Amino acid sequence: MIHIYYLANVRLPTEKAHGLTIVKSCDAFARAGAAVTLVIPRRKTHIQTDIFETYGVGKTFSVCTVPTIDWLYTHGQTASWLASLIFAYGVFFLLLFLPKKGSVIYTREISLLPLHIVGMPAILESHHVFAKRTLYFALARAAQGIVVISQALKRTFVRIGFRENTIIVEPSGVDLATFSIATPRAEARAMLALPIETPVIVYTGNFTTMGADKGIHDILHAMQRVKHALFVAAGGSTTDIKHYQAEAEALGVAAQVRFVGFMPQSLLAQYQCAADILLMPFPDMPHYRNNMSPVKMFEYMASGRPIIATDLPTIREVLNEENAVLIPPGDSDALACTVHTLLNDPTLGERLAQRAKKDVSRYEWSERSRRILDFIQDRS
C-alpha cells in the first residue's frame, strides 16, 4: 500500500477554497486505497468545528500537526517565511524517522519539495506559478511527477523544458454526494428563508483571490439592471463582505443583495438548489485566465442549475455553449442581459443545467484521486 504524506503549510480548517481541496483530496486518496497522513502546522483558527466536520468527510485519514510559531504568519513576509522554515524543519525530522518504502510526499507548496532528501519521492500539485519563476521551476525539478489543474499550466511547464510524461492535468473536483442533490427550489428557499416567488441568483465561495476580485464587482453593477431579482452571495471573509456591502450601498442595490457568509458544504449545496441561476463572472486577469480551476464551477455543474460564467481559457477547458452561458469578462451589461434571458427562458436553462450535470461526473473527487494515484504509482 502506498502511504501519502500530504504536506500543507496552511491553517486548517479555513474558509478559503484551498482547505476544501486539500481535505477532499486526502479523503479521496484514502478511499481509493492509500494510507494518508495530512501534515499541517499547529495554528489557531476561528472555525470551531474540526477538519472532518467542517469539510464533511469521514475520518479516513490521519492528521499530524507540527509545532510552529503561529503569530509569525501574520506579521509580514519575512516573519511568514521564518514560520514556514520552522514548519519545514519540523516536518523534516518527522519524515526522517518514518518508513520510506512505499511512502510519497505530496504537496502544493514548492518550498517543501526539498524534503524529498529524507528518501521519499515527492509529487507537486501546482495551482499557479509564482512571480519568481526561475526559482519556482528550479525547485519543481525535484518532483517525481507534477499534477497541474489546467492545460495552460501544463503548457507553461512544457515550455520551460519539463517532459510531458511527468505531468498530469487534473482540474479541481466535486463531492457529488453533497452537491448533486434534488432539493426542490421552493423547499430550499423555505429552509433558507429566501423569497419563494422572487428570482434568486447565487454566487458561492470566496469573493477574492490573492486580493483580486472574483466577479462580485460586476455582479453588483449588473444588479442595477436586474431590479426584480435577489442576489445571494454565500461565502466571503468578514472583510470582503464589508467591502462589497459598502459597494452595493453606493450603487443603490443593497436591498437586492444578501451576504450570508461562510458556511459548511451541505448548506452551500442548499443555496445552490434555491437558485434560479448560478454566477461565476471571473475578471480577465492572468491568474484566472491561465491557472485556476475553481471548485465552485464543479459544484455548480452538479447542482442542476444553469450557470453564467466568463469566457476564459481555463473555464473553456470544462464549460462550453452546451452546458453554460459564457459571456465576455468585465461586461456587467452582458451579465445582466444574460440573467434576463435565462429567467425568461427556463427551458434553455434546464437544458444547459442537465448537460452540465452529466458532464461533471468525471470530476468527482474519487475519480480524480484514482487517476492521480495511478500516476504516482507509475512514477514511483
What's the shape? globular
Which CATH architecture of the largest domain is right?
A: 3-Layer(aba) Sandwich
Please summarize the sheet with the most strands: 7 strands, parallel
Full CATH superfamily name of the largest domain: Glycogen Phosphorylase B
Euclidean distance between termini CA atoms: 12 Å
Structural class of the secondary elements?
A: alpha/beta
Highest-level CATH class of the largest domain: Alpha Beta
The percent range for strand residues is: 15-25%
What features would you describe in this structure?
The protein folds into two domains: 3-173 and 364-379, Rossmann fold (3-Layer(aba) Sandwich), CATH 3.40.50.2000; 176-363, Rossmann fold, CATH 3.40.50. The mean pLDDT is 94. Helix content is 43%, strand content 16%. A seven-stranded parallel β-sheet has the order 3-2-1-4-5-6-7, with helices on both faces. Strands 12-11-8-13-14-15 form a six-stranded parallel β-sheet, sandwiched between helices. A two-stranded antiparallel ribbon has the order 9-10. Strand 9 and strand 10 form a beta hairpin. The chain has 16 helices and 15 strands. With 380 residues, it is of the alpha/beta class. It has helices at residues 17-31, 51-55, 76-96, 133-140, 151-160, 176-179, 185-192, 216-222, 238-251, 265-274, 286-290, 295-303, 313-316, 332-344, 346-359, 365-379; strands at 3-7, 35-41, 62-66, 103-107, 122-126, 145-148, 167-169, 200-204, 208-209, 212-213, 230-234, 257-259, 277-280, 307-310, 325-327.
